[in-house]
Specification:
Distance between the termini: 75 Å
Strand order of the largest sheet: 1-2-3
Oligomer: single chain
CATH architecture of the largest domain: Orthogonal Bundle
Shape: rod-shaped
């Protein structure tokens, strides 16, 4: 006789977690809204845990201070947010969590209005340092330090010259090919492939033209500047 496989009861995640007293005693709508918010609305488990700590902390605070959900005014909501400790990001996350939770309470007719809707968040700014500008004297010193006896040194001087004189991004310089070094008849230009598939052509000043020509000759790339034999990465060895 074949044994039937043992059937396992379907258990909801976190079903054993005790409800906050304010939700447990708040009636069917409150319990439904709480269950819907944390088990149906929020899919990300990390967000669910973070919001759960925040919302439960607020609900427990209400219980300790004798507050009912329908008695939470915007003023009480603002005072609570002011008392929270932490960075601006932490406070803004707490505000978002409680505000969304109260949206669920409004939807399920637990409270008439969202008291946290009018509470302002904390301003958060990040100070970013600016890249120091290389002075002309420092640039000249840098170029003097390059060993231009070897093709590698000539290459480095040409690359730094392109970066310094054109202001092009490193990634755009790295994409340069020999065919991008063009002769328009009156002067040389460099064609850069920028973001979004756009091309940008920049005239080459006479000293930079000399550096590029010296590198091409020393590297044995030939005099035909339209040969597509530039190294795969202009910054590579």
């Amino acid at each position: 006789m074949t044994k039937r496989p043992t059937e396992k009861a379907l258990v909801l995640a976190n079903s054993s977690v005790a409800l906050p007293a304010l939700i447990r005693d708040g009636g069917g709508n409150a319990r439904f809204a709480y269950d819907e918010f944390f088990k149906a609305t929020i899919n990300n488990p990390h967000t669910r845990r973070a919001y759960g700590r925040i919302v439960d902390g607020f609900l427990n605070w209400c219980t300790d201070n004798g507050r009912e959900l329908h008695n939470v005014t915007p003023g009480i909501a603002g005072d609570y947010m002011q008392k929270l400790e932490g960075s601006a990001l932490t406070k803004n996350q707490a505000l978002a969590a409680i505000r969304h939770f109260f949206d669920a309470l409004v939807t399920r007719h637990v409270v008439p209005l969202n008291s946290f809707a009018s509470v302002g968040g904390q301003r958060h700014s990040v100070a970013e340092g600016k890249t120091a500008e290389l002075s002309i004297d420092k640039a000249r010193k840098l170029f003097r330090l390059i060993d231009i006896i070897t093709p590698m040194g000539l290459r480095d001087r040409a690359i730094l010259g392109v970066l310094g004189y054109t202001g092009a991004r490193v990634s755009a310089v790295a994409k340069l090919r020999l065919s991008d070094y063009r002769n328009t008849g009156e002067q040389r230009t460099l064609r850069f492939r920028e973001k979004g598939g756009k091309d940008r052509e920049i005239p080459v000043r006479h000293d930079l033209e000399g550096w590029i020509n010296e590198y091409i000759a020393a590297a044995g790339l030939g005099s035909d500047y339209h040969w597509n034999v530039m190294p795969s990465s202009a910054l590579g060895s």
